[in-house]
């Protein structure tokens, strides 16, 4: 957000978006606001990540890989069986992980909050370094978007620490970087979307 003056003429605090959500909308944000003066900041607030056309996700090589996002079926034979299993578990467990996560997060001591804040800084630096190494110069809006991916990594780290999820660090890193790469490709690269 831009710095503006408050009633006394001093700079008021910048407002920042701190919300992440998933949408299965048929139109991306960019498609929705096309022709309405879209700016890069809007696209950073609501990051559009495609989840289709992921290669190597179907066990039966005769099946069309172009319309599924599942990469690993675990012990299930097809993506349909796996997604049906996920749906049945979600229906029974909906909200329990989130409630447990929030309960543990709100109970953190000041020392633990500082530890997690430091961890967030480490993750942000790691993601920025890797992305710069892979893609070169990054537009300001891309750098801001990296914060969103860092926040997801931090939340996953915290969920593991809180015993809400069972993931290893490598799985978290791989998930974040593959999602980041999908976003960059979908976005059309790391160059600025608007003139500075």
List keywords for this structure.
single chain, mainly alpha, 53% helix, 196 residues
SSE arrangement:
Layout: H1 29-33, H2 40-45, H3 79-93, H4 96-106, H5 110-135, H6 140-161, H7 169-187
The end-to-end distance, rounded to whole angstroms, is: 15 Å
- Which blocks of ≥5 consecutive residues have pLDDT under 50? 53-63
pLDDT averaged over residues: 79
Sketch the major β-sheet. none
Number of helices: 7
Order of helix and strand elements from N to C terminus: HHHHHHH
**Structure class:** mainly alpha
Strand content: under 5%
Give the % helix.
Answer: 40-55%
| Overall 3D shape | globular
Cα radius of gyration in angstroms: 19 Å
Task: Summarize the structure in short.
The protein has seven helices and no strands. About 6% of the residues have low confidence.
What does this structure look like?
- There is one protein chain.
- The two termini are 15 Å apart.
- α6 packs antiparallel against α7 (169-187).
- The chain has 196 residues and is mostly helical.
- Helix content is 53%, strand content 0%.
